[in-house]
Amino acid sequence: MKNHFYGIGLVAVALILGACGSLIDDQSRRGGGIEIPNGIEANIAVRLTDSSGMALGKTKVFLVAGESWASRIEAHESVVVDSAETDSLGVVLLQVTESKMFLLARYKDQGIHMALQPRDSAGTDPANPLPVALHRLATLKIKSEENQKLVVFGTPWRFSGVSSNGEYVLDSVPQGDYMPVGIELMGLQMGQTTETVRFDTLTDAASVTFSDPENLMLTNFENRRLLGIWDPMHVGGYWWATATVDDVASWDHFGMHALSDLLDSSEGNIFAGVHVQFLDSGKTVANFGLDFSTQPVNTNLSKASHVSFKARGTGNWVLYVQTQDSLGSQSLRWTHPLVLSSAWQQYDIPLDEFICESDSTQVWGDDLRLGTNLFWQIETNGEIQVDDIILKGLEFQDWVDP
After folding, report:
1. What pLDDT shows up at residue 357?
2. What percent of the chain has pLDDT over 70?
3. CB 94 within 8 A of CB 103
4. Pairing, β 331-337 against β 318-324
5. This model's pTM is above 0.70
6. Half-sphere exposure of residue 302: CA atoms within 13 angstroms, side-chain side
7. Where are the alpha helices (DSSP H) in 51-191?
8. pLDDT at position 295, please?
9. Cβ–Cβ < 8 Å for 151, 157
């Protein structure tokens, strides 16, 4: 099947890709999420090298849209915003006009795909450019039960087709993590972030489930990653757990040794959770949840109507959504109590039913709500497991380009 790139000619495709084959603590202060609007302009100097550190002079680089990527895809517009060439020292000055854009480059059997943010201090001085080293090329291989048109977020790449066993493959892409996105008439569908594999590695394709276009899935854990399903769309989003007695934190109260211990499975389903058992008496509190991002990006929850998830467990848990204003000067914590049972239950909680713990005069729908994190809290012993966490009414475009 022929490859198609939105608004990009075959010459540009060859330049961009050069690919062969079928390429197409304190929880009150957790998280980032400060909005940076479109229309900004910032120059970032980059010094491009190969993996050995040799400067790559006269090498073509491309800037791919980040915030406007989704709207460009739906409008069948080019997602490649600009291109430039490094000088003899491998340095190039790039104009970043969105809160996140992506750098794409290829040299021989190496390449790079990475996020650029104008807030980064590195690279603001051309005399001290941001060092960017290319990585070896690899293969992105996924499997989906749905036969659909798939593109890759932050790139101009499109999967060329699907095999008889439901596998999609992109060859010769820079090593890294990528998020496949399905194109449907109703809108874009987010898939789980998937890691590339080496050419010489025999491995099964990663199974990917795609979200409803009108309801944004934060995670379903099926890719066994403790990152948001949308990472690397946002930087730094991750799952975490803390437990304190008299403000002294210790994971001993969870009985865990590593973050991966948050994951569990049963009958083929993967979920995450914690078992809390306080070993000491005093002022006790335990938290378990997801940071949307640790860096300033758009995380606008204003269009979301409900928080939806499956859960089971014991104890008196409270669900928190934490937000802040566009300047990051005001942080608010919104709460909703939960009644859990030992069997899995579906919860669909309207966001306008959350009570603002920080300021009782606040009403959810009265202002812009930029989310920084979502977490569950308990002050006694208990257990909770969660799965299939969705923000209803929030579309892909709302998340990356509100």
Report:
1. 94
2. 78
3. yes
4. antiparallel
5. no
6. 16
7. 69-74
8. 55
9. yes
Check pLDDT > 70 for residue 217.
Answer: yes
14's enclosing H/E stretch is helix 10-17
Please give the average per-residue pLDDT across 179-207, as a whole number.
76
Domains in the chain (CATH in brackets) are: 10-135 (2.60.40.1120), 137-213 (2.60.40), 238-400 (2.60.120.430)
How far apart are alpha carbons 31 and 192 in whole angstroms? 21
Tell me what pLDDT residue 294 has: 54
Residues 143/167, Cβ–Cβ less than 8 Å: yes
Q: Which token pair is 313?
A: 């467990």
Q: Is the peptide bond before 232 cis (omega within 30 degrees of 0)?
A: yes
Separation between Cα atoms, residue 105 and residue 134, nearest integer Å? 8
Task: Give residue 126's pLDDT.
Answer: 75
Q: How far is CA 351 from CA 213, 300, 307, 322, in A?
A: 19, 13, 7, 12
Please determine, for residue 351, whether its predicted confidence score (pLDDT) is greater than 90: yes
Residue 384 to residue 310: CA distance in whole angstroms: 10
Residues 6+ apart with CB under 8 A from 44: 93, 94, 96, 116, 118, 120, 123, 124, 130
Backbone conformation region of residue 363, classed left if phi is above 0, alpha if psi is from -120 to 50, else beta: beta
Beta strands in 197-268 (DSSP E): 206-207, 215-219, 238-245, 248-249, 263-266
| Dist. CA 239–CA 387, nearest whole Å | 13
Task: Give the Å distances, CA to CA, from 91 to 15, 58, 304.
Answer: 18, 9, 42
Taking residues 91-113, report their average pLDDT.
91
Q: Which residue has the tokens 């380009």?
A: 401
Does residue 187 contact residue 396 with C-beta atoms inside 8 Å? yes
Question: 18-22, 75-79, 251-255: which has the highest mean pLDDT?
Answer: 75-79
Q: What pLDDT is stored for residue 346 in this prediction? A: 96
- Smallest CA-to-CA distance from 290 within 30, 67, 26, 34 is with 30
CA angle 206–208–214, rounded 5-degree value: 165
Distance CA 48, CA 62 (A): 12
Query: Which residues of 128-200 form beta strands (DSSP E)?
Result: 130-133, 135-143, 149-152, 167-174, 177-178, 180-184, 187-190, 194-195
